[in-house]
Specification:
The chain is mainly alpha-helical. The chain has one domain. It is elongated.
Amino acid sequence: MKKKTNYMALGLLIGTVVGGGICLTLYALTSDPIFIAFSGLGAAFGMVYGAGLDKKLNRSL
């Protein structure tokens, strides 16, 4: 049986890794706590983008 790709979960994972990595690196370089708050934006963007792909391809959870 072939597994379907869940793009929402994949987008959440990639967004967390990329967005969190960039923001936490910027926090380490600048010590500005605003980057900690922005680290979740990558995850949110990835989740919304992946959910849009799932909906476009008619694959809902």
